[in-house]
């Protein structure tokens, strides 16, 4: 490694929005205003956002909207990218099943 400047990796304080709740597969999931659906589901320990044709779990990969591995059904709309969708109070989210 060369003698370049070191970068501090300290945490940046962040303010959280108000607590909210939505539904995933019929179960309540706690979240915060301004948080994405993916962040809330990952924090809740959801093991799969969807299922592949082979039956494998789908989980977020890129977390920036390009891979669709986080796709869910949200309020009846299929293929919603959970990493881009804001969690909203009362929204109904379901796993995306391979078709
Ligand atoms: S994680 Fe890749 S599109 Fe959401």
From TrEMBL:
The keyword rRNA processing does not apply. Keywords: Oxidoreductase. GO terms for molecular function: iron-sulfur cluster binding; oxidoreductase activity. The keyword DNA-binding does not apply. This is (2Fe-2S)-binding protein. Pfam families: Fer2_4 (PF13510).
């Amino acid at each position: 490694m060369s003698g370049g400047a070191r970068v501090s990796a300290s945490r940046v304080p962040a303010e959280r929005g108000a607590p909210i709740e939505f539904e995933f597969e019929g179960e309540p999931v706690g979240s915060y205003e301004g948080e994405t659906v993916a962040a809330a589901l990952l924090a809740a320990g959801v093991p799969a956002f969807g299922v592949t044709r082979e039956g494998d779990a789908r989980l977020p990969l890129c977390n920036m909207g390009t891979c669709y591995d986080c796709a869910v059904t949200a309020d009846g709309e299929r293929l919603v990218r959970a990493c881009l969708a804001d969690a909203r109070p009362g929204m109904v989210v379901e796993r995306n099943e391979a078709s």
